[in-house]
Amino acid sequence: MSNRASIKLKNNSAKPMRLIVEPWATEFDLPSGSSCEVFSVGGMGIPAIDLESVEGAMIFWINTDGAIYEYWQDGKLID
Question: Full-prediction pTM beyond 0.85?
Answer without folding.
Answer: yes
